[in-house]
Amino acid sequence: MNIHHIAVICSDYEVSKKFYTEILGLNILREVYREERKSYKLDLAIGDQYVIELFSFPDPPQRPSGPEACGLRHLAFSVQNVQDKREELMQKGLACEDLRVDEFTGKEFFFTQDPDQLPLEFYEL
């Protein structure tokens, strides 16, 4: 079994589209507007394996999204150099937490958030 895709509903489609493509650098595979749902669907590539589906819906309900909230905890990306990625994102204006060290693997990681406060983790390969 493999992961097919990860779906994210955003509150402001243009802001989130810019974040995921320009700040995080994900590539657009397909973008469609579904008139019957008044919803955009943007398929984004992450390397060669996974796809993020970014959705816009009219008036989506709020939900807790802190890394310790019940439900989806966070979305994690693996990177070669976590310190370089943190510096790159901060130079693009993103607030990033301090680096942490995984007590079991010794690998470094940090958290930031997308425009809707979805916690995003960047973890050293």
What report would you give on this structure?
This is VOC family protein. With 125 residues, the protein is of the alpha/beta class. The chain has 2 domains: 1-59, 2,3-Dihydroxybiphenyl 1,2-Dioxygenase, domain 1; 66-125, 2,3-Dihydroxybiphenyl 1,2-Dioxygenase, domain 1 (Roll), CATH 3.10.180.10. The chain has 2 helices and 8 strands, in the order βαββββαβββ. The longest helix is centred in the first third of the chain and has 11 residues, at 13-23.
Number of domains: 2
Question: Per CATH, what is the topology of the largest domain?
Answer: 2,3-Dihydroxybiphenyl 1,2-Dioxygenase, domain 1
User: At the fourth CATH level, what is the homologous superfamily of the largest domain?
Assistant: 2,3-Dihydroxybiphenyl 1,2-Dioxygenase, domain 1
Biggest sheet details = 4 strands, mixed
Assembly classification: single chain
Number of strands: 8
Taken in chain order, the helices and strands follow as: EHEEEEHEEE
Unreliable parts: none
> How many helices in DSSP terms?
2
Cα-atom radius of gyration? 15 Å
Structural class: alpha/beta
Strand content: 35-45%
Separation of the first and last Cα atoms: 22 Å
The proportion of residues forming helix, as a percent range, comes to 10-25%
Mean of pLDDT? 90
Strand order of the largest sheet: 1-4-3-2
Quick one: CATH class of the largest domain? Alpha Beta
Q: Categorize the overall geometry.
A: globular
